[in-house]
């Protein structure tokens, strides 16, 4: 895997459809996962995946701070698409963490970093240790954050996993059209306590 020529691969995949990119990733015949946050447009990648292979484990890091709407949509998508959903939660309950630290702001960088470790990075590390993936399908897009603008359809994650983003170059109109055409449910209210502000990474894709 380490000898893959990513420049050549990205050139080949740049104009391929999302389904073709997923099929390419699975053709590597390596342990593969897909992650989801069940955010408003997360159904796009989930729908694309099950059209190709619904057996792929879908990992959800449930921070414990999701809205009721998010949980309801997650249940609906899991049932409708027959997802192979694997959910991972923090070791500490939300109620206990609220009592101990609440949801830190970026003003306290150290506390917010610890909060992010507890609710996102530690559960994700447990998921990685269990599944030992070599390929990671993800719904990230290049126009979402400054960090993602530096990536491509295929890139190496800092953990040594091959990250494959089938809708990397989709714009908002393409995403909205796919959601509408396939009548996919979307949570109207979504909350990620680790991001704090738009265009900020939660830590999952940067490794911390």
Automatic annotation (TrEMBL):
One of its GO terms (cellular component) is cytoplasm. One of its GO terms (biological process) is sulfate assimilation, phosphoadenylyl sulfate reduction by phosphoadenylyl-sulfate reductase (thioredoxin). Residues 33-190 form the Phosphoadenosine phosphosulphate reductase domain. Pathway: Sulfur metabolism; hydrogen sulfide biosynthesis; sulfite from sulfate. Pfam families: PAPS_reduct. GO terms for molecular function: phosphoadenylyl-sulfate reductase (thioredoxin) activity. Belongs to the PAPS reductase family. CysH subfamily. This is Phosphoadenosine phosphosulfate reductase. The lineage of its organism: Bacteria, Pseudomonadati, Pseudomonadota, Gammaproteobacteria, Cellvibrionales.
